Amino acid sequence: MTKIDEINENILQELNKNGRISNTDLAAKIGLSPSACLRRVQELEESGIIKGYRAILDKQKLNIGFVAYVSVGLSSHTKKSQKDFEKAISQATDVVECHNVAGSFEYLLRVETSDLHSYKAFHTDILGTLPQVNSITTYVVMESSKDHRE
After folding, report:
1. pLDDT tens for residues 85-117?
2. Domain 66-140 class in CATH
3. SS3 breakdown of the chain: % helix, strand, coil, rounded to 5?
4. The whole model's pTM is what?
């Protein structure tokens, strides 16, 4: 198991800000030689602490103008009902996150569509047709003052 010491913590913070930073620049920010920095990053990758790198997409240029969090309550609390719901949601391209949560409902979804009309179609044609769904509550994102994904 890789130890998360102060240096590794700093490496992770810098990579979280900019996954495309060059090893030379990362080493300079952390205060290590490039070879020592590269060894640490490779160890963090091999141990699975760093699972991968991703691109941050411009939602406006992709015509995504509507974002909502949707709470979903299931009509049955069986494992089969959950698995069936999760299978259906995994095929819904507008759902970018699906979380099984504790509380007054079972799932919290992050849904991104081009506009309200497209969301209504998702709400009606996808969520509204799933036999496991008992309740749906939509929380429209007006603005995000803090979002580490961007």
Report:
1. 999 999 999 999 999 999 999 999 999 999 999
2. alpha beta
3. 40, 20, 40
4. 0.82
